[in-house]
Amino acid sequence: MKKTIIWSLATLMALLVLVQCKPNNEKPETIQTEEAVMENMDSHKVTVKEVLNANAYTYLLVTEGEKEYWMAIPKTEVTVGKTYTYEGGMEMKKFESKDLKRTFDSVYFVEGLTDPNPPTVTEKAIDPKTIAPKTQLAKGITLAKGGISLFDLYSTRDKLAGKTVILTGKVTKFMPEIMNKNWIHLQDGTSFNGFNDITITSLEKVKVDDIVTLKGTVVLNKDLGSGYKYDVLIEDATVVK
Question: Does the domain made of 128-239 have the CATH classification 2.40.50.140?
Answer without folding.
Answer: yes
